[in-house]
Amino acid sequence: MKAMLLEKPEKIEKKPLKYSDYKDPEIREGKVIVKVLANGVCHSDLHIIEGDFQLPGDLFPMIPGHEIVGEVVESKSNLGLGDRVGIGWFYSACGTCDQCVSGHENLCPNALVSGINVKGGYAEYAVLDAAYVSPIPDEVKSSEAAPLFCAGITAYSAVKRISPSIGDRIAVFGIGGLAFYAIQMIEATGAHAVAITKGHREVAEKAGASEITDRPEGKYDGSIVFAPNSSLVKDAVSSVKSGKTVVIPAVMDKIDVPFGDFMWEKNITSVASGLRKETRAVLEMAAEHNLQSMIQERKLSEANEVLADLKNGKIMGRAVLIPSSISNCIVTLHEF
Questions:
Q1: Which of 3, 159, 176, 284 is in the most buried spot, having the most CB atoms within 10 Å?
Q2: What is the pTM of this model?
């Protein structure tokens, strides 16, 4: 099969991913092989490829990718051939530790991560754990489903942490692919999403935000920060009401917030990759409530260029890699 191989971490400008032949996958009991139909491109992929995450050398050569949608072509499980399934960052867990037993499998210390501990979706085929995949509803296209396995579930988990009530005003900082989902989810609860952005008003408008402003105004019933920017976290904390929560799904080196901002019982929390039941809830939402996606389809072989565009802020929503065996599309922007 063809795959984008990473031999060692390097800056994306050096095009470290090599479009190469790689051995065809084999499976054991409980696994499936899927023909990859689509794989979303995430900022975490860029961090992994450029070496921002310290990883042991025995994981290389690596095939990145953790927003995988594919069609089952070989199965040693209860899944049938032709089933369309997907998996995200959270590949599998041990099932026996305290976190797994208590229903927090996404926090399992022995969990495996797609595209790191196991070969990911930047390839024509991938091996998935049948117990942890989620079925794709017929109503959702593969290229639109792929980002839901990371961007979608991250947004869903963040909104769930805030648990908006009808009429609440929830501030969303860092308007992009994740915020596009979160705004829709907030509005679906009957709350009002307030998009705070200086340069991406059109994204917020298309997502249906109730309010769009370039700076915080008033006090909010919760905030979500999707950009890795400490100053935005400070703004988010200072602008929420007492007793309310700021959720930070973004990867940050440090957060610099004066302690005085916490004197009135304000909370900061993060979110980890979602549970299987939450992932399936996002997919059901997409199918039943017409959750919109903003994606660009690109060829698998163009992964280096796509990641460079992502790094330079040229990807407005989410890029999705399509193996050449699936589509000859060069770039397709899905409008809505």
A1: 3
A2: 0.89
